[in-house]
Amino acid sequence: METAEAKTNTGGWRGWLFLPAMALVFLSFDQFTKYLVVSHLALYETRRPTPALAHLFSFTYVTNTGAAFGFFQNGSVVLVIVAVVIILAIALYFRRVPGDEWLLKISLAMQLGGALGNLLDRVRLGYVVDFMDFHMWPVFNFADTFIVVGVGLLAYRLLLHPRAWSAEDFPA
User: Fold this and answer.
1) Does 133 participate in catalysis according to the annotation?
2) pTM
3) Which of 10, 32, 47, 91: CA 20 to 30 A from 63?
4) Which one of 30, 121, 133, 144 is the catalytic residue?
């Protein structure tokens, strides 16, 4: 028999702290890697970690004032507003995730940490720091990776493993 704590996120302070704690882990890793790039590479400089992989991957320090793939360049103000709305939506949705839904919780924490990482860049710098260059894809960062993987986990959980949730799983 399921307990009320297993069904909802409101079963105690630990349930509520999971989202900010995990998001902080993802945010910290993103900001630390960006710090390393900014402090060790000049803007537009490229470094290849190993000659054997040079044709596949390199670190290239670039900035992005737009959204993913360089769309919506110089739209930082709008993108800040969109990020804040998404962050609030994640926080509100997290409150309604049943306590035993760890894949959903992790996916939301990844998305929140990634959104906060890029939002912090936009607010502090006016642009996002990108540096992972696979040469066949636009340059990106770990915040972008966390968002994409988090959305993928969310889609996997909701689309491929649906569960008949009842009204009591989502208290008002």
Assistant:
1) no
2) 0.83
3) 91
4) 144
Active site residue 130: yes
d(CA 155, CA 147): 12
Query: For residue 166, what are the CA distances in angstroms to 9, 96, 97, 171?
Result: 15, 12, 12, 10
Q: How far apart are CA 125 and CA 131, in angstroms?
A: 16
Phi, psi of 147, rounded to the nearest 5 degrees: -65, -50
* Catalytic residue chosen out of the listed positions 30, 121, 130, 133: 130
For residue range 143-167, what is the model confidence (pLDDT) as tens digits? 999 999 999 999 998 887 776 554 5
pLDDT tens digits for range 99-124: 888 899 999 999 999 999 999 999 99
Half-sphere exposure of 77 (CA within 13 A, CB side): 0
- Which amino acid, residue 112? L
